[in-house]
Amino acid sequence: MLEHLKKLLRSRYVGLLEEEVSRLRAENRALMNSLLGTAGFPPVEFPEAPKPQPLPRLRKRSWHQLQAWREAESRNLPADPARNATAPGM
Q1: 3-class secondary-structure state, position 44
Q2: Residue-range domain boundaries for the chain
Q3: CA–CA separation, 12 vs 15, rounded Å?
Q4: Whole-structure pTM value
């Protein structure tokens, strides 16, 4: 339950930060166009900020899926030369 509370607070905090970033970007655009207008230049058109995309929901993997993934990963790793140098018979 504590993890759910942390996740909720973290997502709320991230949302607040994203809102602050968009507000600051709008403020910067307005200030820059104001300065350009004072200098006699036409205002600059900025492209629209990208919309945040929802993240896909992560599936929880079963223990046998995780084990198979770890085994496949360990088979794909190159042999460790440091371990082979200390192996008996060398």
Answers
A1: coil
A2: 1-46
A3: 5
A4: 0.46
Question: Are 51 and 39 within 8 A, CB to CB?
Answer: no
Measured between alpha carbons, how far is 63 from 66 in angstroms, rounded to an integer? 5
How far is Cα 69 from Cα 76, in angstroms, rounded to an integer?
11
Structure tokens at 61: 């993997």
Q: What does the alpha-carbon distance between residue 63 and residue 71 come to, in Å, rounded to a whole number?
A: 12
Contacts of 43 (CB under 8 A, 6+ apart): 33, 36, 37
pLDDT digits over 33-90, tens only? 999 999 999 988 888 877 777 877 788 888 888 899 899 988 887 765 555 555 555 4
pLDDT in tens, 14-42: 888 989 998 999 999 999 999 999 999 99
d(CA 11, CA 3) in angstroms, rounded, equals 12
